[in-house]
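[#protein-structures] MJ: dropping Major facilitator superfamily transporter-permease here for a structure pass
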Amino acid sequence: MFKKIGVLSLSIVTGAITAITTIIPLILKHYPGISISRIETLVTISSLSALLTILFNNKLVEKFGLKKTILSGLVIGMIAGVIPFFNNDYPVFFISRIILGLGVGMYSPHAITLISILYKGSERANLLGVQMGVGAFGNSILLFFSGWLAKMNWHYTFFTYLWLGIVALLVWLLVPEVHIDKIKDKKSTKSLSHSTTKYLILSFVTFLIIWGVQLKIPTFLYERGIVSSEKAGLILGVMNIAGMLAGLSFGLMYKKFKLFLLPIGFLLAALSVFGMINSYSWMMIFIFAVLFNFVYSFTGPTIVLQVNQQVEEYQLTKVNSLITMTTILSSYAAPIVWNNLSKIIDFKEGSVLVPMYIMILSLFFCGLFLMCYTTYKLRYKGE
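AK: finished. structure tokens for Major facilitator superfamily transporter-permease:
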């Protein structure tokens, strides 16, 4: 029980990079001579530097061990995260955010890796779902905590990163030393299978769509005449809670639907977005948006579970680092992809409905293809 608490605690701080999002307007006011794009860079630069350590995560684990890599990342992230409280000159602030990202990249992929190594079978499936739920809940905690501290003084927001120290203590005390099998023969250089590569591509597409929907909801509400930012925030907040509930119930749902849970998630998500954009009352939009996040949140854990089940143990660090990269890259790509696709179609240019209809079609065709492919595998290959 205590080991699971230690393992799952890591998921609370996987979204630590975005903890200062709530104070961007206050930071902008503090630096009147600096553009908003440079202020927003203080958030995005951490994601970019995280990619660097994620790329080399496999080497770090081989050299220092999994637990030491995780603990080092948490401590580095905690120290770098609180530095702007003591010195918020823009160059110092900027460099500290780069270092924070390096730390986050050292530990964030291993929220999944620890579960995949320490647990098997249905217990692994249950915990991977719970991990997704705890991750969503953790993001909410960090944003709430940072917002609460900002009410006193925006500088206090950086104490939010002390959570990384608390998690480091839990990991140190409760998580056992983890030894990943090292295979010295030619298999150790074996590349990922085609099936695993396809799942990684699907992971990118999956998160690209969910970021796209969440990105367009505030604009969609505005087009529907609902100009309250409070209502937009409420929808996005409750969507996260719905994602958490989906994660907690993932083990039960996967046991019931098996591989069909993935295409079902895509198809129901398509129906939910279709219902949302054809609604005109805030309450109906709210219901369909929350339903979308609930059903679609079964897709991520299913992909992660399938990938982790089909790779060798020595490949777990690599593959989970790649999964983490797909989520980060998709968040960057989402506004670029959906906005440019809508321009190419050139139908009622500027309307948020264009990219949202493209998302519906993407969800539908992905779901239809996966349904046919899963049926084929089970019927003719006996998988």
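MJ: nice. The first helix runs from residue 2 to 12.
AK: one more thing. The domain at 194-381 is CATH 1.20.1250.20 (Growth Hormone; Chain: A;).
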